[in-house]
Design a protein that fits this description.
It is built from four helices and no strands. By secondary structure, the protein is mostly helical. The protein is elongated, with a radius of gyration of 21 Å. The mean pLDDT is 77.
Length: 93
């Protein structure tokens, strides 16, 4: 499986472009706008669900823990949070 999220993103981009170019070449008529709306509403969400499933499933098979608290603890910067709160208090009060 693919372990890099950028590769999965590029595959999703390629799938999106393939779907729209296929619609452009085979479905270009008076109802093109209506057809693209239907495509955006029903076909592309299914494509993105499959891409999301592949992405999450590959991370799960790799054994990487997906815990939100651990991700937030690694990504948060306490100094930045304090600076933002001080800035908002001094600006508005």
């Amino acid at each position: 499986m693919v372990k890099n999220v950028y590769v999965i993103g590029l595959w999703l981009f390629a799938a999106t472009m393939l779907v729209f170019f296929a619609l452009y070449f085979f479905g270009m008529n008076v109802d093109y706008f209506q057809n693209t709306l239907l495509l955006n509403a029903f076909v592309l969400p299914a494509v993105y669900v499959v891409g999301g499933y592949v992405s999450v499933n590959s991370v799960r098979k790799a054994g990487i823990a997906m815990v939100l608290g651990m991700v937030l603890k690694e990504r948060s910067n306490p100094c930045l949070l304090v600076a933002c709160s001080r800035f908002s208090r001094s600006t508005f009060f």
